[in-house]
Amino acid sequence: MTAKRLGLFVLATTLVLAGTVFAAEFAGENLEYEFGWKGIAAANASVQIAEMACDGPCYAANIDIKGKPYLDMIWRVRDRIKTWAVKADYSPRKYVFYQREGGFELDTEIVLDKAEGLLKATRFRKDKGKALTPKKAQSAGVFCPLSAILYMRAQPLEPGQRYTANVFDGKREHVIEWKVEGREKTKVPAGEFDAKRISAQVIKSNVADESSKVEKVRKVTIWVADAPNHLVLRVETQALWGHIYGELIKK
Fold first, then answer.
1. Which among 23, 45, 24, 28 has a CA at the least distance from the CA of 36?
2. CA 225, CA 240: separation in Å to the nearest integer?
3. How much is the pTM?
């Protein structure tokens, strides 16, 4: 994984963003975000979270990412990310990421094998008609990208505190750290909020040559509402030129 892709991985996992767990409730969220670069809007992401049954009460979280129509001729983006996670501890039961970016088409699916205690992943390059090497990870204490964010959103997130989560993305395992830097007012198109500012970064990946790449990943800054459900308001990371941003435009 390149440093650029690691940085984008952190940014993507903060979309749904997050010890003692707050009595947070995410079911019923129906949100709209806009993403861009240097103030130029490039894509919209819609987020819906519902409750369903799977080994007891579960969250079903869905993200649809769609590039702006005027960019379709250059780089057409139509991504979909979904997870099914147990409400009690946010452990994933299934995760899918259908990536459609330009001519690149990759389907990633992670499913819990309860008998073996493993998260098993399959990946298929649809644009090449080729199955990639299956991967697996221990399920105990390991999240998928979206269930990790639901878990972190449920934390107290008090200034000065640090939180980590072990995340399996279907290809590699990562340790992501969130540090709560403080409180401040934040204004986004959806309104003005009392917020907490958080920095997030991949600090470790389970590949021998990954350490130097992880060190090059730029931190992502996240602003979440200062309320028990810690609604994600804005995310921002530095790029080679300018910065990539995402902000809440409708809730």
1. 45
2. 29
3. 0.86
